[in-house]
Amino acid sequence: MAELTSFSFHPGSSLLHKLDVRFKIFFLILISLISLGCGFTGLCILTGLLTALIMHSHLPLKSGFKEFRFFIILLLLILVARMLATPGTALFEIKSIAITRPGLMSGIRICWRLVVIALLGFLFVFTTRSSEIKAAVEWFLKPFKFIPAKHIATMMGLIVRFIPVILNQAKETAEAQRARCLENRKNPFYRLIRLGVPIIRRTFEQADRLIVAMEARCYSENRTDAILSATRIDWIALLIIFIICGGIVSI
User: Fold this and answer.
1) Phi and psi at residue 122, in whole multiples of 5°?
2) pTM for the complete prediction?
3) CA-to-CA distance for 68 and 111, rounded, in angstroms?
4) Which string of DSSP letters, residue by residue, matches 69-130?
5) pLDDT tens string 48-99
6) For a FRET experiment, which of 48, 137, 224, 227 has its CA 20 to 30 Å from that of 113?
């Protein structure tokens, strides 16, 4: 069993913990879509909203930063690619390599959007039980009779539960390789392969053990799900989010 990580549910009494999971999923989708089309002003508004929610929910950004480090590397690669590939006025040139102003602005905007979406997902996982996510997915898919709602909802719940498992496997593998001085290898691709292959193998082994355990306990999809009920707080939050998103779109 995986130990508690930043990317798992943490009990709390914040507003996000109290919101109905169906509203939280809708907010996650809506704000993510809005962030993909807004400019710097809209991103500033969303960042202010996210900052307030992070402080109110006591999200552990310090510990989460370590698990975000590979995502940060991806953002840096995207930023560099946009700076070098976008034509426009050059800020400075090094031989035949030119970093353009439009490329820099475009790269910052794209990376900013991805950070907003990633933090939204982080907040959602941090404040929502996997059983509630399973019940909400089943509720959303229930009107579509041709879709196996219970099967998909069960898979979604297991995926959320496996996030801390995969992170723990990565942490243990990295510590084992650090003890064997693998970091002294200068070739980054060699270190990446040596890290990735054991993580994938151990994750599949953990998944196989989980399947055997579920079959041994006669696990089925027909289980008692979490009770979902909307309150006045959920509708007030929906109104506030609509106002904020409407203001961002109209900018």
Assistant:
1) -60, -45
2) 0.75
3) 14
4) HHHHHHHHHHHHHHHHHS-S-EEEEETTEEEEHHHHHHHHHHHHHHHHHHHHHHHHHHHS-H
5) 999 998 888 887 777 666 667 777 878 888 888 888 887 777 777 777 777 7
6) 137
